[in-house]
Design brief:
heterodimer, A: Rossmann fold, 8-stranded mixed beta sheet, B: alpha/beta, Pyruvate-ferredoxin Oxidoreductase, domain 3, 6-stranded mixed beta sheet, 6 helices, 23% strand
Chain lengths: 355, 188
C-alpha cells in the first residue's frame, strides 16, 4: 500500500477515522492539538461529529454519551487536560462503556511544559481516577504504530466494553515518518445489543448505569475479576530486541524505546550483550515478555523520561525481583544512547544504577 | 545514515526544507524521520528540524551531538547553535545573506556560502530561500543526485498544491550552480 508522510498526531487521527470513529469531543492543548485540528475538518468529510468543547470535562462526558449510544467515540488531551478527564474515565469503567482516549504526554506536574515526557505512567497504568479500575494502555513508538494502535483500540475497547488509552508523547506525536494507513471501516452504532436507542412503545427503557447497581454487589466482583483476567491474558503486547543472549535488558516504551534501540545497536557494536523489551501495552504489563527470557539475564535497566522511575516497580514485579533493576531517567532531554550504554555497562560490572 | 539539520528563523521555510528531504527520501525508498524543534516559538523566532535518511530502519529520530552530516544554517544563530554538532568533514551551508562573511568557522568541515536571500529576490520568489539552500546542498554533497532532488522538489509541491511552481525550480537551480562551483565531494 502507498506510504504517506504524516505527523504522529495526524496519523493517529486518520487511523481513528478509518477505524470507524465518528465522534470526537475535546479541548486543545499542546502537544495534542494536531489531533483536534485534523478532526475539525476530517470528521465533516466522513459525516461524523466534531465538537470543540468548552473544557476537557465536557469532552470526556460527551464521549460517555456517544459511547452509550454505540458510536466509536474519541477524546484526546495532555498534561492537566488529561487529569481533568479522569472522573469521566472512571465513569466509563463503572458503566462498562468502550471509548478511546489519547494522552499525548508532556513533562512535569501541574502546567509543566509542552516538551515530551513520560511522567503519566502511574496515572495511566494504575487507574488515574477514583475507584477500582484500570484501563488498557497502549504506547506507540512510531508514526506507523500511532496509526496501527489507534486502529485496533476501538476493537479492544468494544471487546471488553472498557476504555482504551493511547499513551503517546510529544515526540511521537510531533514526529513525521512515512505511514501506511489502514483501510476505511464503517461502524454500525447499533451493532451491539447494549447500546441506548430510541424506545418503541412496549420496549423496556434502557439506561446506562453503574454495572454494580445492575448486577448487585454479590455478582459484581466475579464479573469484574473475569474481565480483568481476560484483558491481562489477551492484551499483553510488546517487542523484544536482541534478548536471546542479552545479559542486560533495557525496558523502555514510546520515545525512550527509540533511543534505547539505538543504544542496543551501539552496545552490540562494542560487544556488550544488551537487549530491549519494549512494552507496547503498559497495562496489561507484558509479563510474558519477561517469562520468555533465558537465565543468562543478569539485570534490567529502565529507561524513561521521568525523574522518579515510574516503570521500575512493574519491571521488579515482572522479573520476580530475581535480578537487580536499575533506572536511567531524564526529565526534559530525551535519554542519550551513549549514556544508556554507559549505565548498562556499569550494571554489568556489578554497579548499582539509580536515576 | 544521513543526518541533516535545517535551521533558521521561523518563516524561512526550514521546516519545509526538512519535509521536502524526508518526502524525497520516502519517495526513493529510504527510511526517513523528521523531527521539529519544539517550544513556545513564534514567527521570527528560531526554528529547526532534524532529518534522518537511511537504508535501514531508524531508531532515534534525533541527530547525534557530534555526528551531523549536513547543516543548513539560514541565519547566524543557526550556525552558532549547530556548527559544533557537525562531524569532522561535515558540510555546513551558510546563508551568506544573513551570516557575516567574517564569522569564523571550524577548519575541519566544508563551508559553502550561499547568498540565498539575494538569489530568491532575483528570482522574485522570496519564499524560495530554503530551496536555494537545498539546491546548493544537493549539488555539493555526494549523498545527493541534484537532478533527482530537483524532480523531488517539484513533486513535493505538486502533491501539495496540484500545480507546478517554475519559480521554485528556478531557485533550486540557482542554488545548484553555487553548489556545483564549490564542487562535489565525498560523503557528504
Amino acid at each position: 500500500m502507498e506510504k504517506v508522510l504524516m505527523k504522529g498526531n495526524e496519523a493517529f487521527a486518520e487511523a481513528c477515522i478509518r477505524a470507524g470513529c465518528r465522534f470526537f469531543s475535546g479541548y486543545p492543548i499542546t502537544p495534542q492539538t494536531e489531533v483536534l485540528e485534523y478532526m475539525s475538518w476530517r470528521m465533516e468529510q466522513v459525516g461524523g461529529q466534531f465538537i470543540q468543547t468548552e473544557s476537557e470535562l465536557a469532552g470526556i462526558n460527551m464521549v460517555f454519551g456517544a459511547a452509550a449510544a454505540g458510536a466509536r467515540a474519541l477524546t484526546t488531551s495532555s498534561g492537566p487536560g488529561f487529569s481533568l478527564k479522569q472522573e469521566g474515565i472512571s465513569y466509563l469503567c463503572g458503566t462498562d462503556l468502550p471509548a478511546v482516549i489519547a494522552d499525548v504526554m508532556r513533562i512535569g506536574s501541574a502546567l509543566g511544559e509542552i516538551f515530551q515526557g513520560q511522567g503519566d505512567y502511574w496515572q495511566l497504568t494504575r487507574g488515574g481516577g477514583h475507584g477500582d479500575y484500570r484501563t488498557v494502555v497502549l504506547a506507540p513508538a512510531s508514526v506507523q504504530e500511532n496509526a496501527d494502535l489507534a486502529y485496533i483500540a476501538f476493537d479492544i475497547a468494544e471487546k471488553y466494553r472498557h476504555p482504551v488509552i493511547i499513551a503517546s508523547d510529544a515526540a511521537i506525536g510531533q514526529m513525521v515518518e512515512p505511514v501506511e494507513l489502514p483501510p476505511m471501516r464503517e461502524h454500525d452504532i447499533d451493532r451491539y445489543d447494549w447500546v441506548i436507542r430510541g424506545r418503541k412503545p412496549g420496549e423496556e427503557q434502557r439506561r446506562m448505569k453503574n454495572v454494580f447497581y445492575r448486577m448487585g454487589a454479590d455478582k459484581y466482583p466475579a464479573f469484574l475479576l473475569d474481565k480483568y483476567r481476560r484483558m491481562e491474558e489477551n492484551e499483553q503486547r510488546w517487542e523484544s530486541l536482541a534478548v536471546e543472549d542479552a545479559e542486560l535488558v533495557l525496558v523502555a516504551y514510546g520515545i525512550s524505546s527509540r533511543v534505547s534501540k539505538e543504544a542496543v545497536k551501539l552496545a552490540r557494536s562494542r560487544g556488550i550483550p544488551l537487549g530491549l523489551i519494549r512494552p507496547i501495552s503498559l497495562w496489561p504489563f507484558p509479563q510474558k515478555a519477561f517469562d520468555a527470557l533465558g537465565g543468562q539475564v543478569k539485570g534490567f535497566l529502565c529507561v524513561e523520561m521521568s525523574i522518579l522511575g515510574q516503570m521500575v516497580d512493574d519491571v521488579v514485579l515482572a522479573c520476580g525481583n530475581r535480578v537487580p533493576v536499575g533506572f536511567y531517567g531524564e526529565f526534559s532531554q530525551v535519554p542519550e544512547p551513549e549514556i544508556i550504554v554507559e549505565r548498562a555497562a556499569a550494571m554489568l560490572n556489578g554497579k548499582e544504577v539509580q536515576a | 545514515m544521513l543526518e541533516i539539520i535545517c535551521s533558521g528563523f521561523g518563516g524561512q521555510g526550514v521546516l519545509t526544507a526538512g519535509l521536502i528531504l524526508a518526502d524525497a527520501g520516502m519517495e526513493n525508498g529510504k527510511y526517513v524521520t523528521w523531527y521539529p524543534s519544539y517550544g513556545s516559538e513564534m514567527r521570527g523566532g528560531t526554528a529547526n528540524c532534524n532529518v534522518k535518511l537511511s537504508d535501514e530502519e531508524i531508531a532515534s529520530p534525533y541527530c547525534g551531538k557530534t555526528s551531523l552530516d549536513i547543516l543548513l544554517a539560514l541565519n547566524r544563530a543557526a550556525a552558532d547553535k549547530f556548527e559544533n554538532t557537525l562531524r569532522p568533514g561535515g558540510l555546513m551551508l551558510l546563508n551568506s545573506s544573513l551570516v557575516p562573511a567574517d564569522r569564523p568557522c571550524r577548519q575541519d568541515i566544508r563551508v559553502i556560502r550561499v547568498p540565498a536571500n539575494e538569489i530568491a529576490a532575483e528570482e522574485k520568489n522570496a519564499q524560495g530561500v530554503n530551496l536555494v539552500m537545498l539546491g546548493a546542498m544537493a549539488a555539493a554533497s555526494a549523498a545527493f543526485d541534484a537532478e533527482q532532488l530537483c524532480r523531488d522538489v517539484n513533486h513535493y509541491f505538486y502533491k501539495k498544491k496540484k500545480k507546478m511552481f517554475p519559480q521554485n525550480e528556478a531557485c533550486f537551480r540557482r542554488g545548484m550552480q553555487i553548489g556545483a562551483e564549490a564542487g562535489k565531494e565525498g560523503e557528504p
